[in-house]
Write a structure and sequence with these properties.
222 residues; mainly alpha; Herpes Virus-1; 2 domains; three-stranded antiparallel beta sheet; 8 helices; 3 strands; 5% strand; globular
Length: 222
């Protein structure tokens, strides 16, 4: 039995995932632009719906690919004399996976969770300082600038990354260098933010902090 055509079709499906990922990146950027330009909450919420649709498509595509791969592997293992209806078998597996869907599935979609995280940070930074500014504008500016300083270099960050575990941000290059150096010594990296109790910073925990970078760039332009 030749499975080349099916393997080729699966490869094409996997390419579709890259288009979904690109769409999610664009939707994230647009949402952050909307918050930064103080657009209506309704506009921002519409981008969240777009992200949810992308995440749903991604989940369905993953299930479809997995269903076909499992069906193919099963047939290759069993080597039946008569080739079964692969499409029907795969469809059954797909529907079984889809029946177990839940909203918690989206928490495993890294791009959707990154969108939620960055949107939350962006709103906090652009809309959450009102009470501070009412008390003292100078205090608000000082507070913001303190958050722009990398705890490792003690300089304003240019390419900040955020730790998903403890929520602290650092300049990308020095934190990666710290992780690499300690890894060679078989040691963990403690979060360099003073007072943080997180003692095992991993490269995989770090994501670009687009919200903070926008705040820093905005401050530098003033």
């Amino acid at each position: 039995i030749s499975f080349n055509a099916i393997d080729s079709a699966l490869s094409s499906l996997k390419n579709c995932q890259s288009y979904i990922n690109s769409g999610m990146d664009v939707a994230t950027k647009v949402a952050l632009d909307l918050v930064e330009s103080f657009n209506d909450e309704e506009d921002v919420n519409s981008m969240e719906k777009v992200m949810l649709e992308y995440a749903t498509m991604d989940r369905e595509l993953n299930h479809y690919i997995k269903a076909f791969e499992e069906t193919l592997n099963q047939v290759k293992r069993e080597k039946p004399e008569n080739l079964p209806d692969l499409e029907n078998l795969a469809q059954e597996k797909f529907l079984e996976m889809e029946s177990e869907n839940s909203d918690s599935d989206f928490q495993r979609n890294e791009k959707y969770m990154y969108f939620k995280d960055q949107l939350k940070e962006m709103k906090k930074k652009y809309r959450g300082n009102d009470t501070i500014e009412e008390i003292d504008e100078d205090i608000a500016v000082t507070w913001s600038q303190m958050n722009f300083i990398c705890p490792i270099t003690q300089m304003t960050m240019k390419k900040p990354v955020r730790n998903k575990v403890c929520g602290h941000s650092y300049e990308e290059a020095p934190i990666l260098e710290m992780i690499q150096t300690q890894k060679q010594k078989n040691k963990n990296v403690r979060c360099p933010k003073m007072g943080c109790s997180h003692v095992d910073v991993k490269r995989s925990d770090l994501v670009p902090d687009e919200a903070l970078k926008r705040m820093i760039d905005s401050q530098n332009k003033q």
